[in-house]
Design a protein that fits this description.
The protein has 243 residues and is mostly helical. The strands form two sheets. The protein has a three-stranded antiparallel sheet with strand order 1-3-2. Strands 4-6-5 form a three-stranded antiparallel sheet. Helix 2 crosses helix 3, helix 5 crosses helix 6 and helix 6 packs across helix 7. It is globular.
Length: 243
């Protein structure tokens, strides 16, 4: 193939890309995106709303465009989520946003679109350790906080009840838990396969009161408050923000 032909192909590709960008810009300037469309949001706002609904959270780092759109029109997004019995949660310091099921003032239950799927025992332990490591790293002046897969697996293993005998099964569940937390976006892959960056979203998604409930439930399930169950440093985990 000649050099001229290659150049022509590149030009055609660039032209196609320009056309796509023009189309996206055109969508951004219009709230009518298809025949019969009666929606009131523009294309960028709808993209951000879909991201909020599909993902556990969005952040300035993981979804920069959606985060900026949300910040520009927070009241609009809050209203749209409220129409679905959802409440918008925003942590501006960490630049993280997520949704929660709205609670009825009368004590009743609203219809929900959310799958009320609890974290597994192993996933909970991974989250507890991530929160601990994140707080310690940030308190030490780290801008980014990292954790190794083996560190997470060892932490989960430290909570194995004394009567547990299925070591291979326990390790498999622990590895699956790490993969699940990573899929949720709370562990960010790095160039090293066995090393992750801890997402800043861990702390707002795992508040103190929930963390305490989870740890207590785990200890009750283990039937012990032994040294292995006390492997976590509660003085660090339960220290109030700003102290």
């Amino acid at each position: 193939m000649s050099l001229d032909t290659d150049l022509d192909t590149d030009l055609d590709v660039d032209a196609d890309l320009d056309a796509d960008l023009d189309y996206v810009e055109e969508l951004d300037d219009s709230v009518s995106l298809f025949e019969g469309d009666e929606g009131g949001l523009d294309y960028g706002q709808r993209q951000a709303l879909v991201a909020l609904l599909k993902q556990r959270f969005i952040s300035a780092r993981t979804h920069p465009r959606d985060w900026q759109v949300l910040m520009d029109d927070e009241r609009v997004f809050r209203s749209r989520l409220n129409d679905l019995f959802l409440d918008l949660q925003v942590d501006r310091e960490r630049e993280v946003a997520w949704k929660r099921q709205a609670q009825s003032e009368g004590g009743g239950r609203f219809p929900t679109l959310l799958h009320d799927t609890a974290w597994s025992r192993e996933e909970t332990l991974v989250l507890v350790h991530l929160r601990d490591r994140l707080r310690a790293g940030l308190a030490g002046g780290d801008v980014r906080v990292y954790v190794d897969r083996d560190d997470l697996l060892d932490y989960v293993a430290s909570y194995r009840p004394g009567h547990a005998t299925d070591e291979s099964g326990d390790e498999k569940r622990a590895r699956n838990a790490v993969a699940s937390v990573a899929k949720a976006g709370l562990l960010i892959a790095t160039a090293a396969e066995e090393r992750f960056e801890i997402s800043e979203a861990v702390e707002p998604l795992l508040p103190l009161e929930l963390l305490q409930e989870l740890l207590e439930a785990l200890r009750e399930a283990n039937g012990t408050t032994s040294a292995s169950a006390d492997a976590v440093d509660e003085a660090d985990l339960f220290e109030e923000d700003g102290e």
